[in-house]
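Below: protein 1.
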Amino acid sequence: MVRICASIMTTFLANGLWHGAQWNYLASGLLHGCYRVTELICGRAISRSGRTLQPFWARPVRVARTIFVFLLMAFAFIFFRGESLAHSFHIIRRLFIGWGNVMNPTALAQQLPAIGFSPTFLVRALLIICTFETVQFLQASGPLRPRIAMAPVWVRWGLYYAGVIALLTLANHNQAPFIYFQF
């Protein structure tokens, strides 16, 4: 187990170094490695204990685990995207400052454009989320592709055109450089 954990840590630290010889990339690799090693050790301990969840708790625990993993990954990516280790720590120090404005719609509306959230961006984001949720809802009753294929031609082509129009309308037309071009 020690060799496996050491191999995992070495791999993630090497991954951090591959992205750049900066401390923030090493910190990101170290965090990802620690997450994976902790998951491995805890998973084996739970498995060996023979404990299982009651069916009632299976879904809430799965949702909580998903949220927890998302938060851990988002935290590790602060280091990956930070310009330096000092910059990453500056962002972390500011994580819990200014949350009172979230409850004040006027203050929130004034601050959102400053961080690049224009009203157009927010509407676009909401439309994309609604589209994905609609597709997810429709797929709950079975795959969509066969149902669309069996629909009349005018319905099928209407959906195709609506999809293309939505893609062209909702797509971000501002070009951002691909992150790996810097490596």
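Below: protein 2.
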Amino acid sequence: MLTKRTGLAALAVACLAAVLPPAGAQAPAAGTLDIYFIDVEGGQATLFVSPTRESLLVDTGFPGDRDTGRILEVMKDAGLRQLDHLLLTHYHVDHVGNAQNLAARIPVKHFYDHGATAEPDREQVPGFQKAYADLAAKAARTSLKPGDKVPFAGVDWRIVTAAAQAIKTPLGGAPGAGAANPDCNGFEPKNTTQDPDNGYSVGSVIAFGKFRTIDLGDLYWDREFDLMCPANRVGTVDLYIVSHHGSDLSGSAALVHALQPRVAIMDNGARKGGSASTFAVLESSPGLEDLWQLHWSVNGGTEHNAPGAFIANVEDNAALAALLTAPPGGGGRGNASANHAPAHLIKVSAREDGTFTVSNTRNGFSKTYKPRR
């Protein structure tokens, strides 16, 4: 279970981190699935690189050169000259904002999405749908359905949600899939109707040998129930990519506790996501060893944030004081947070035997997790 480190323990971790070599965004080691959690200030841009150097990017962050540059820098360090696959979980500004800019800079071979937008009268990126259709027409486009597979070399990439629908039967061969989910009994619906395209998010379960992770985009709380109740159709995972940046509109106990992740990674911003209720669900999740964060969360406060060694971007004292005393609202839903420079990332390297290592490029600290027994 996730625990808080005392001052002496945190100091020991920091000293250890200081002597470790930098864990920069470098070319993947042979035989590993490498996952780069790129800091796009509370949006999402997660790059997967297979052992055969095939690439798949989930989402593109906010519009503008900042996030284009950050994505391209990581791709360059990984030795990539094109994107083999670009999967857009849904059509909100913090997830698709950079698709056009990125595709103008590098070749994108195949686009994936959930199909028609759930918000036809409101585009968070003006003109996006037409521009996206034009882009995809020059390459290839697949609108995904629950049960589909994305052809990603050496990796079992299965779609479990899309367009407000979920898989109907448990994933074959997944550990724990089909088991009764006791957290469904106390589930309280939130009936979220704002920003409906969140509920249409493409959700993926990704397996590389015995290593398993899940990315549900911004899937809403009630749609989690559709996927996980009355039985867990997904099974357990090693790594949980925290849904919706840690917003309290997602990340129910019915989802998180049934997944039983050993590690969680939250792609939050300083003021976006990272709600206290999300931290509480994670802290009570059975078997969770560590939480890693892209940013120290103002919303989590001193009670909930992970130890500093596990956080990629931490403000200096003056900036932190400004964040804590500023009125709420900056970097909220759909808004880009202020630039954090340099922008550090979190990297995961997974092996087929289930071993995986998580690294923080800010301080060089890394931790290896052995396979479950």
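The longest strand covers residues 155-162.
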